[in-house]
Amino acid sequence: MSTDAELIKLPLSLGLKVNEILKEKINFIPRQNKTGIMTFEYTREELELIEKLDFENPVRGNIEGIELLPNLKTLVIKSDGNTAYKQDKNIASISDKDSLCIYKCKNLENLSIENQAKLSFLDVSQMKKLHFFSAKKNARLEEISGLETATELWQLDCYGNESLMQMDDLNKIIMQNEELTDLNLDVLLFPDAVGYDVKSGEINEDTLRKFDDMNISWYEILSSEKNIKINNYQMMSMHEKAFQALKEYVPNYCEKRTVVLGIEQYLAENVKYDYESLKNEHSHSYSSKSDDLPSITSGPSGRS
Known about the structure:
Blueprint: E1 8-9, H1 12-26, E2 41-42, H2 44-47, E3 52-56, E4 74-78, H3 96-103, E5 110-114, E6 121-123, E7 132-136, E8 143-145, E9 155-159, H4 170-176, E10 182-186, H5 190-193, H6 205-211, E11 215-221, E12 227-231, H7 232-249, H8 256-270, H9 275-280, E13 284-285
């Protein structure tokens, strides 16, 4: 029989979730104190049975204690709805403090974080067995560190994180993970993904060759429910068009104001608005090489 010294206490929120899982697995009966109140105490053997946790619409502190689950392999955290116009107190999201709990989960193999508006950083450097990593639509996420140490990735999803403008080691991450077959990234991360050199304009040709054998999609999030999805062939075409536009419309070593004016001139002369898409209220998905590149789906009326 277990003694008190052998028991591990979990926070109430996590304890309730663990109770449900253990009840299904081993008909677990929660421990109680002398007054009949649940103590949320477990043996290590019991906690080792928890391999997967899903949190829907979590609030700060909900995941506290997950680092005490030694065999936790899959962690999914997701919130529903658009958080753009909500006050912080009304947003369902984990916090940066909770991110520290995730950091301590060394045995995670699958990690998915979606629509967590109060999260600004993630550190996965301790997760040496990580196979699946997904960070999507986290409005304030500015930094993902530690992915450069991952060598066993199978799939990497990272898009719609408005504050994450670049990932310096992304090309290294892609190239060193030999079993990486699925890639879903934000269009803004394309230069980092292909190792684009700003000065020379060159990209890593080995990466492009690797892309030929991978399942790759590039995303641009227009709103909480609308997005543009294009394949790698179309992404390359967009990159080449952007590079050509800069070459033709933006002088070398000019002021930022001149850069903006040059890009605005290019857009004014070349962009056509997709008013039909606005009428139908749906997002675009482009999958074949024969598809046209996506049009801008909002803007003032005018001649096409």
